[in-house]
Amino acid sequence: MKLRQKIILLAIVPLILALCAIAWAVRNQATILAQQQRASVEEAYLRTKEEELKHYVSLATRAIAHLYESGRDDSATLNEAKSIISNLDYGGDDGYFFIYDLQGTNLMHPRLPELVGRNLWGLTDANGNPTIQRLLVRAQQPEGGFERYLWEKPSTHKVAPKLGYVVTLDRWGWMLGTGLYLDDVDGALAKLDAQISKNIDNTMLWIAGIAITSMLAIALSGLALNISEHRVADAKLKVLAQRVVRSQEEERARLSRDLHDGISQLLVSIKLQVEAGIVKLTGDAAQPQSARVPFDRAANQLNDVLGEVRRISHDLRPAILDDLGLDAALDHLAQEFAINTSLPTHFESIGSTDDLPDVGNTVLFRIAQEALTNIKRHADASEVRIDLARIRKIVTLVIADDGVGFDVACITQHPKRGIGLRNMHERLEAVGGKLELSSSSEGTRLIATLSLS
Questions:
Q1: What's the predicted TM-score (pTM) here?
Q2: How far is residue 237's CA from residue 243's CA, in Å, rounded to a whole number?
């Protein structure tokens, strides 16, 4: 996996995890709030129903109050009370009153007359709950009581949940009560649950949409960055290729000049000296002795040719750099520079650079070569100093002179005169190093820093 893909992945994965955590927290909190809201609505509904039932039972007891308070309990009085209660209704077929005795026998039921006279003490609902027994227990409380149970709904002839309220008429031994069916409450709560569930699902969809949009935005941004970086990299590669070609041509031109101005002229001179010697050898007897002079000159010039070849070879790649390391190579370079230019050149090394990679050795040596060449051509200096220091993982090369200096900004921007400095910068940047250059009328100071890590 490429680094850019890893970066995009590291951006997307935490985002997904964060959104998942947010979604879980939102859903969890929404569910808790929905349960609390449902409980509050249900409680409000039931309180309303309870108040309504108390009101209805109160009306029923007031309707027969004149009979109950008369103190009579004969059959005629009881039947008249039953008749009054049976004619009371509210809310259509589902609103009615019922009467049981305290042993569970039904005494009056306006919607189910077949139950009248039957003892329903052992009656249970679909869940196995003893309906009449529980109603009788609630009725014997001081102010009556409420009981939820299942009962057939007259309007639909289906069993539905019901909330009953019952009281006792102790003098007659009756349980008087009524009830409201709760299927409408359950329906309202079901609608509320469905709405809340829909809202939660919509919230999850919004979060999912935000997550997908964010991931697409990150992916598109990464793609755009990738394309942009590719373009920048291509442009840099083209510029680098041009510089490489230009550097190669400059190096070839320098080698051509060295060969033409040095070795070529020496070889031509040697050729002429040898030919002159051969002519004298083929002459009279007195000529061989005089022929020795051109051959001696030719031998000396051959030595010069060998020295020139060694110089060119040393400039291309000094063997001492590979054999003895950077310290020895820079020391030798300083000595040669001092001999060739007659400028006092001091070299000092602190710390060991033996573990410096070959590419690091080469880069620092080339920078030193380029810097000394610039000093020789342009500085008009009277003294040069080269310092190589190794402190922990940092290697620093400092080359300073006391010459006339130059305008660093102007030279750097010049298309032709700043090539050497650009080459130094590029060599160091390629190995993660840094080049600092300062110059004034008092001299020039170049600092090349390379990290071994």
A1: 0.45
A2: 10
